[in-house]
Amino acid sequence: MKRTAFFDKHVALGAKMVPFAGYEMPLQYAGLGEEHKLVREHCGVFDVSHMGEFFLEGPGALDLIQRVTSNDAAKLTDGKVQYSCLPNGNGGIVDDLLVYRIHADKYMLVVNASNMDKDWEWISRHNTGGVKMTNLSDHMSLLAVQGPKTFDLLQPLTQVRLNELKYYTFEIGTFAGIPDVIVAYTGYTGEKGLELYIKNEDAHKLWDAIFGLPGTGIAPCGLAARDTLRLEMGFCLYGNDIDDTTSPISAGLGWITKFTKEFTDRARLEAEKANGSASKLVAFELVDKGIPRHDYLIADASGSTIGRVTSGTMSPSLKKAIGLGYVTAAHSAPGSTIYIQIRDKAIEARVVTLPFYKQA
């Protein structure tokens, strides 16, 4: 198992460590409920250094990105970030990712840890134009600082004007005395927050600076809270809600699938968008008691199987059971009644619109 540069920090703080995507990662510290609440109301810090960072450079970098991703990266300008995915040529998804435009001939792709090797192989296979590709995943650390107080609390550590950062933008500047930090505002929790990309050798300095700020109430958080926070927003998790067998259209990611350019699977996905998907990813809330879990079957009123759960939890913010799952198109409209098979019971649920959690 790999360890991030913050491993010793997690152990010293008593985090419960678990294997995740080939890494030993903190599942929780004080507890899921407390950490979830901290991010919704204040500010929490996640070690997400397991994520992969690929750098593409050269005059052909944009062309390569355009051919392998579904979104239109030509719309990016310096300092902008874009959510996208890598179609796999068979109607499914190699991975979802973030595309950072550093300048016209240099981009950073942020990919999921579990898919790093196959992503690298897939992009390399399509690199017919001699684009310089560098995989710095093992040399970079990443902290996600999330919560409504984040910008104000961390402002003393940098001259980057945090409150002027727009959603899905970034700046490269000095942070906690560390030069050339990529300071981004994207997030996976639905709250304001920063992603701080640094070299491994600067990891402890950044950690100590953030937690050394006096009287902030900032605390570390684990993967458990990260998952409940993202699910309350309806954000997809690769391996659960999207994978090699799900199309971006059926997953509700048509908004990152742009037919203004040529890319892998364009014709197939364009036809699916025009004709409709056989199944769709929907959000649902349980009407009766129970907690939906990954791979639980979904049925209609007659008991016929119409789909399966991809993600589910008891929402800490809403105090109700929520989930995502694929169902046949006929049962996908908001307000539709579906039934989650939990053990030997059919638990009534209702299809709803996202996000589950709406900020006041």
Low-pLDDT ranges: none
Secondary-structure element pattern, one letter each? EHEEHEEHEEEHEEHEEEHEHHEEEEEE
- Class by alpha and beta content: alpha+beta
Report the strand count.
Answer: 20
Largest sheet: 6 strands, mixed
Strand order in the largest sheet: 11-12-13-10-4-14
Distance between the termini: 41 Å
So what's the overall shape?
Answer: globular
CATH superfamily of the domain at 2-49 and 138-232: Probable tRNA modification gtpase trme, domain 1
Determine the CATH topology of the domain at 2-49 and 138-232.
Gyrase A, domain 2
Question: What Rg do the Cα atoms give?
Answer: 21 Å
* Assigned CATH class of the domain at 2-49 and 138-232: Alpha Beta
How many helices? The count is: 8
